[in-house]
Amino acid sequence: MFIFKRYKIRSYEMGLLFRDGEFRGLVEAGTRWFFDPFGKAHVDIVSQRDPWLVHEKLDLIVKSGALAERAVVLDLKDHERALVWIENRFSHVLPTGLYAYWTGQKNVRVEVVDARNVRFEHEELQVIAKSPMAQRILDVCTVNRDRVGVLFIDGRYIDTLASGLYAFWKGESEAKVVEIDLRETMVDVGGQDIMTADKVTLRLNAVATYRVVDAKLAVTSVDDVRQTLYREAQLAVRAVLGVRELDQFLADKDAVATEVEELLRVRATEVGVTITSVGVRD
Predict the structure, then answer these.
(1) Is the whole model's pTM more than 0.85, yes or no?
(2) Helix axes 225-241, 253-270, angle to 10 degrees
């Protein structure tokens, strides 16, 4: 039975000495011998080339104070997250927990952030958002060009976001971004049977074009702006034609379109929309 144990620790490695399950200290590089007649000592050899020290007894190692000046130690509380750079390149995002990073072989930089600020803003967000670990603890969304995003946190309106990339911490609050298209859009009011003042039934097709000018109002005032305008356009066409005789309508279709537009414009303003034009197609 061997009562001495031999360990060879390379220049880029570190030994973690345990006796009877308790952490006893760090073991520097070199060939090391340990007197262990009862087989209760062992050394876990870890590489510092991968700075992240992962060990099942990390709490004991940290508590001993042995990592002081040798590693960056993080004890992230429930509301904290950490951004980790290795060799000046972004590596990953850390959730709540205890972590340690060796500093002997590679340059490690850590930034602790408060996740109670649900919206995560950072000058290097484009790079951070691509990290696989970031995707597990961040909700990332993109507001496309020619659109804005209406931001709600826990059901409460917070802001209207310009086009760009945004991220929100998971687990703290519920963040929702509703994307609104600001480009001009057309509503095709399909054929509906309408009776004129002289009891003639017409099937009329019309078209209205609109543009959202108040995204918050467009999202919070109605469920669906497009469907609302479609319904309001139908009512407006029916109201304008219902007081005209057929000959009046045929003589001046443009006047009908103008009146429909005026009626529709009032309702559109209430839902954050401006009417660009209204026309009677056939």
Answers:
(1) no
(2) 140
